[in-house]
Design a protein that fits this description.
single chain; mainly alpha; two-stranded antiparallel ribbon; 4 helices
């Protein structure tokens, strides 16, 4: 299941993959990349790959911005 993400700037619609959404939920719990990797049974490098995609799709440049944007857009509940 992919999640539609409408950017606040422009009419571009991006999709967060289910795995990207899982990574985002783990971030919201305050987990490090290593902890997310352990939870999702992957490597920290894979988590970094998903984070880069999340940042691009949400038009942000760090974890804090991604979490704020996700809450603002209603993708996650704080």
């Amino acid at each position: 299941m992919a999640i539609d993400v409408c950017r606040e700037r422009g009419a571009i619609t991006q999709r967060l993959s289910e795995r990207e959404f899982e990574v985002l939920r783990e971030l919201m719990e305050g987990k490090s990349s290593q902890q997310v990797a352990e939870t999702l049974c992957c490597t920290p490098r894979t988590v970094g790959f998903h984070l880069a995609n999340i940042y691009r799709k949400l038009d942000v440049s760090n974890r804090m911005q991604a979490m704020r944007r996700a809450m603002t857009m209603g993708l996650v509940i704080s």
